Amino acid sequence: MVLRLLTALIVVLTVFLSCTATLPQKTDESYIEPAQAAVLIKEKGAVFVDTMGYLECMDHRIPGSLCIALEEFEIKSQTSLKDKEQHIIFYCESDECLRAGQTYKKAKTLGYKNIYILNGGLPAWKRAGYEIESQQRIKRAPVVSIKPHMLKNLIKEKKGLFILDIRSEDLYKAGHIDGAVNIPLYTLHNRLKEIPKNNPVLVIDENGKRSFLVCCWLINNGVKDVIRFYGGMKYKEIQERKG
Q1: Is 6 part of any domain?
Q2: Neighbouring residues of 55: CB distance < 8 A, sequence distance ≥ 6
Q3: pLDDT tens-digit profile of 157-170?
């Protein structure tokens, strides 16, 4: 048992380091402020790329943004961003989000020249007074949340519980709850049929920041009993270490 836990921890650490070790530093010229981004749009025809999932991007984004999730950038950029000289600004929906930096790193390796990261992401853009748009707004709904220590009882009480892990494939492989089904968020809008509407569904993400929107989307699409896993897998791991 100890060996299994140790192995899982090593895999998680390896995934984390591979994602963060070579990310651009905040002092790098790769990071630009909202006002600089606005100038690049006007003078250079720069394009914004929202690196979150499609559902998130359509719910709220900087006007005119391309919706290209981090996980699918390498493939979608071949058709959506053919010009390697195009000015591109990557962003995500939180101040701390690493996805824009990780996508920037991918773009560099693919040969893109004039690329940037929006410092502070979507929140910074809004604070600077710039507009956002919603192409397909997801109606918000009340969502029940549970904490990690409540999981065992939930499984006993909720017969046929469908545990939906919306993290990336790599994070899922590094460690997940027994029986959880991995449908990464960036693919979710095309895979609704895989989620049972008449079973209780528990939604798990990485840190608790993305699961609420997914729960609302599921409720809007007829899933009757939806529960959110508070704090995501990171919170679960912290609580287990404390225990």
Answers
A1: no
A2: 138, 185, 188, 189, 213, 214, 217
A3: 999 999 999 999 99
